[in-house]
Amino acid sequence: MTDNNAIEPDPQYLHAKAWAEEYELVDRQFSSLGLIAMQELQLVHGETVLDVGCGTGQTLLQLAERVGGNGHVLGVDIAGRLLEVAARRTAHLGHVTLIKSDAQILDLPSHSVDAVFSRFGVMSFNDPVAAFSNFRRILKPDGRLAFCCWQALHENELDHFPLEAAGFPKAADERPFSLSDPQYVQTVLATAGFDAVEVRPHKELVTSGDVEAMTRVLLKVGPLGKIVRENPAIQSTVEPKLRKALESLGDQVSTRLAAAIWIVTARPN
Ligand SMILES: C[S@@+](CC[C@H](N)C(=O)[O-])C[C@H]1O[C@@H](n2cnc3c(N)ncnc32)[C@H](O)[C@@H]1O
Fold first, then answer.
1. Which residues are in the Methyltransferase domain (predicted)?
2. CB-based contacts of 250: which residues, under 8 Å, 6+ apart?
3. What does the pLDDT look like over 150-200, one tens digit per residue?
4. Which residues of the chain have pLDDT under 50?
5. How far is the CA of 120 from the centre of ligand 1 (A)?
């Protein structure tokens, strides 16, 4: 693993810790959502693809299968703790390289990758135009960009249902929804040097498994997870409320909530 000298931001520490602990449950929720965006890239064997904010690496495995052993997958993430999990999961794959860096300033050669992909890893940039301009620089002239990001909180039952169940109807953290306005996404990507920008809505019921699995993961990640992990004293009161609300949905074996995302695709102009 190379280290591009990024400092792991302290506010992200608890997020990374929670994610690293529950990545299998998160992957169950997110796998199909990421695959829809990945499919848009139409990757073929031998290509090089960059996974932005690759986290614990499920998408690295999925990308590696698509580009084959003669291709190359580069995964970048700012959180070393998540890259450690990704490194374990991809250790058997010689064509996966992990880079610890702030993706906004990722120092890869210009025109060196065929495709840039992300599953929910592009919403936290301080300067989105600078970040996407950097991806535009790294992409080959005929390269492709595809990512998924969240629609607004009120569209996302996966996020607002747990918040309401716990008595926090509004999310404290707006960052996951920073690309929820499709017009803004269009503007950012056009300013960063992309065209053929398409922002397509997708809604799907997702699950991490039964009521216990969903209770556990929703207390760790997402908007409610952020509130609980930063205020651990409230967990004992929030947990039974959330469990009861999830039980009331009726399906104890596969407890599903609707996720509303944008599938964004673009090409360098
Ligand atoms: C919501 S998680 C998604 C992780 C992974 N893509 C997945 O779907 O499992 C967002 C990821 O983006 C990473 N991230 C956030 N800001 C970043 C930045 N500026 N540069 C690189 N990675 C970043 C986080 O560390 C985290 O792993």
1. 49-143
2. none
3. 999 999 999 999 999 999 987 678 899 999 999 999 999 999 999 999 999
4. 2-9, 11
5. 7
> Which domains does the chain possess?
2-153+173-206+259-268 (3.40.50.150)
Nearest residue by C-alpha to atom 27 in ligand 1: 55
Closest Cα partner for 200 from 149, 141, 155, 243?
A: 149
Is the distance from CB of 223 to CB of 164 less than 8 angstroms? no
pLDDT at 252: 80
């932005």: which residue's tokens?
52
Ligand 1 in reach of 82 Cβ (< 6 A):
yes
Which atom of ligand 1 approaches the CA of 104 most closely? 19
What is the number of alpha carbons within 13 Å of residue 209 lying toward its C-beta? Answer: 11
Tell me how far the alpha carbon of residue 259 lies from the centroid of ligand 1, in angstroms.
Answer: 18
Q: How far is the centre of ligand 1, averaged over its atoms, from the C-alpha of 7 (Å)?
A: 14
